[in-house]
Amino acid sequence: MSWLRELEAIPSVKRAVLTGLDGLVIEEVGQGGVEAQFLAAEMASLQRAMEPLTRALGEELRRYTLATDEYELLAVCFADYCLGALIDRAGGQRALVGQTLSRLAATLVERL
């Protein structure tokens, strides 16, 4: 079963990955932007780098966004996993992608 199939159906999603803290790809969809292995490794690195700040706040990292002129990375973190989608900013589907990521993460947290 492909967990990320729903993200692949959204035209502005260039690539989506599910990764663990080790940065290895668990699942991927899409063919745009950067390679899935690179995206997963960088997402895990960002998640680990933000851990001291979130711990100092007495919280856990739930989501983060990284934006450039052309792309935006939306990521939802849960347990020891991170689910992210690299989108084309011109696509205008940011809210839909964010909602889909959150819904998928809620499902995955129960199954992983």
Describe the 3D structure.
- The chain has 112 residues and is α+β, with helices and mostly antiparallel strands.
- The chain has a single domain (5-111), classed as Beta-Lactamase, CATH 3.30.450.
- It has 3 helices and 5 strands.
- The protein has helices at residues 5-8, 36-56, 94-111; strands spanning 13-20, 25-30, 63-67, 71-78, 81-88.
- The protein has a 5-stranded antiparallel β-sheet, with helices on both faces.
- Strand 4 and strand 5 (81-88) form a beta hairpin.
How does the SSE layout of this entry go?
Elements: H1 5-8, E1 13-20, E2 25-30, H2 36-56, E3 63-67, E4 71-78, E5 81-88, H3 94-111
Antiparallel strand pairs: 1-2, 1-5, 3-4, 4-5
Average predicted local confidence, pLDDT:
93
CATH topology description: Beta-Lactamase
Helix content: 25-40%
In CATH, the homologous superfamily goes by the name Dynein light chain 2a, cytoplasmic
What's the helix-strand series?
A: HEEHEEEH
Largest sheet, in brief, is:
5 strands, antiparallel
In the CATH classification, which architecture applies? 2-Layer Sandwich
Task: Report the CATH C-level class.
Answer: Alpha Beta
Tell me the span between the first and last alpha carbons: 13 Å
Enumerate the spans where pLDDT stays under 50 for 5 or more consecutive residues. Answer: none
Strand content: 25-35%
For the secondary structure, the number of strands is 5
- The number of domains is 1
Computed over alpha carbons, the radius of gyration is 13 Å
